[in-house]
Amino acid sequence: MHNPRCSETAAEVKASSPIRTSLSEREGSMWGRLKRPSPRRMDDLFPWTFKAICKRLGIPVPNGLAPQTSSISHHTSSISLIDDCRSDDSELCHEMLSTFGFSQEQMHRVAERFHLGRSRSGKTIYWMIDDIGRTLDGRIGDAWVSTMLKARYPTAAPYVHFDHCLFGLHQISECEQKPIGIVESARSAVLLSELCPELIWLAYIYGCNLNVNSFEPLQGRKITLFPRTDSVKETYCSFLELADQVKRCYKDIDISVSRFLEDNANDDQKRREIDLLQYLLE
């Protein structure tokens, strides 16, 4: 069934405006005032995605008979292309300056740290990059880039599987000694990375992304889970169960669940199910 919302969001990626950072475009700051070139086609930004897969599988694009083949795992794009699409002009970057009081230098540092992108309308693209630099997927608003690509190439969609990882996972190789904090929201992880820099901040974004397998790249690390609070401690208790499973599976992971919100949030905050960032900002 056609999903108008998915089509609308797909147009965001199709017309996303990559921003280059050549020396001639930098004017004093880490990125300076970056120029914005004309919007490029999705196929230009993601040349190794469904169009290439259709060719490999022998599927005429956009329509045609599906071949008899098993599904294949795929990555949306290389890190170089994600860098080509990065931007300091997204909604979140503006919010860092206007709402959170970040300096220009802090905003640029955060945008580079997470390779933040920007859609044509200004929405922030949160790229999901794993611990070895593969871009597995991306999040724009409440939609996945992989879902948009499947809508664009429906014939190939049944044969392609997109893996997910924790958002921000690419940071762990750069900071091998730092403890790790995990929250739900990618936006919260991005902002907390500057507000509480003593931790490496990751996010699971969606519940199914947080499971025992998600912690395989984090062996040997100290991890604290920061669940949203709620009136009946449902999320907190589920995180305790998950932490026990992780300990049994990975003996060298030091994992704990923070009680900070359970001990400090008031009844109204628990009713609203706020997260750590929201508590710190209220």
Describe the model.
The protein is an alpha/beta fold. It folds into 2 domains: about 1-165, no CATH class; about 170-280, Rossmann fold (3-Layer(aba) Sandwich), CATH 3.40.50. The protein has helices at about 5-15, 40-45, 50-55, 80-85, 90-100, 105-115, 145-150, 185-195, 235-250, 260-265, 265-270, 275-280; strands at about 70-75, 115-120, 125-130, 135-140, 145, 160, 180-185, 200-205, 220-225, 255. It has a 4-stranded antiparallel beta sheet with strand order 2-3-4-5. Strands 8-7-9-10 form a 4-stranded parallel beta sheet. Strand 9, helix 9 (about 235-250) and strand 10 form a beta-alpha-beta unit. The longest helix is centred in the C-terminal third of the chain and has 16 residues, at about 235-250. It starts with a helix and ends with a helix. About 35% of the residues are buried.
User: Reading side by side through the largest sheet, how are the strands ordered?
Assistant: 2-3-4-5
Radius of gyration: 20 Å
Largest beta-sheet details: 4 strands, antiparallel
Strand content: 5-15%
How many DSSP-defined strands? 10
Please state the structural category.
Answer: alpha/beta
Overall mean pLDDT:
77
Please trace the helix and strand order, writing H or E for each element.
HHHEHHHEEEEHEEHEEHEHHH
Judging from the principal axes of the Cα atoms, what is the shape? globular
Number of domains: 2
- Roughly what percent helix? 25-40%
Question: Helical stretch count?
Answer: 12
How many angstroms does the end-to-end distance come to? Answer: 42 Å
Low-confidence stretches: 1-49, 61-72
